[in-house]
Amino acid sequence: MNPVSARLLNQQLISPQFKTPHDVVDWMGAMQAQDYRMLPWAVTMRTRRPSVKAFEKDFNEGRIVRVHLFRTTWQLVAGEDLGWMLGLCRDSAMRGLQGWMKSNGVCIPKTEQDAVHQIFYDYLSQHRIALKGDLASAVADRGLTMEDHRLSYHIRLAEYSGLLCSGDYIRQKNSYALTADKLPCAVQMPHEEALVLLTRKYFRSHGPASLEDFVWWSGLGIGDCRKGMDAVGGELIRERWKGMDLFLHQDSRTRGFRSGGVHLLAPYDEYLIGYKSRHVALHPDHSHRAHNSRGIFWPVVLQDGEVIGNWSAPAGKVSVDIFHPDATPNEASLEKEIKRFIRARSI
Prior knowledge:
By secondary structure, the chain is α+β, with helices and mostly antiparallel strands. Helices cover about 45% and strands about 15% of the residues. It folds into 3 domains: about 5-180, no CATH class; about 190-250, Orthogonal Bundle (Arc Repressor Mutant, subunit A); about 260-345, no CATH class. The model has no long low-confidence stretch (mean pLDDT about 95).
């Protein structure tokens, strides 16, 4: 088994199977969505014909939503998955959020939380979507004054309560909407059933991966993750690779890899951040070029699934910096990928 080629296939980075951004997000389960500006590329590069406009359409229609979920971080999920995913991760996410609040000396009484949530509800019932500044003004208009970081905690609490989710995709600006308006048919399911579905989605799209990778990605306890893997049972295939137990879902692909491919990955891409151990694709000597110790991830260049450089696109012009001493990217493949990125932004 070659875990690099299998991950490239199952993450839809080579020979993508899907036409729409929604179908990609649904397949991936959840995609880290920290870098708002690069979200369309992170998703649509995994479609057969990358298109920013297609991403915006699915986002605005609620087929894709952006909220804080697993690991208390920004993520993209399919609209129909938000309800059961929120039920699955709410307890662990709330513990993480409350830990942050305590470390920052922030205490939000239940009465204040209820009052602010009502203000959010009243404003969005009239205006449909809101920017963070709109919510701040609405709160101030009701006679409540608070610092920006306190308002951020209130918004996060409103997300975990199921009140708020993402609004329309406004470039450079995150917006909010009432979840009940955006997703009127949110699906709920029992904990065990939700755990099985999340496990299946993860190993199907991220495999081969380890138990420790799944625990990291989901933010759930190791007991729950083991339970999910046991329940999925015969759907998972165990492979031994360099002393590690890695698991593939029976629907995962292992054939179809062709060498010479170059990819421009967005910051926080699932190809790296979806695993606790990233050495499969990223040599430890180069890890500081892909992310820092504070969890900030930068855009990277892949060649045949290995991180070999960084890239940026100020004003839409792509610049590439190859730092791997032994890497010489295929110029034709690199140029093709650059053109694919530029074209996606225009259609």
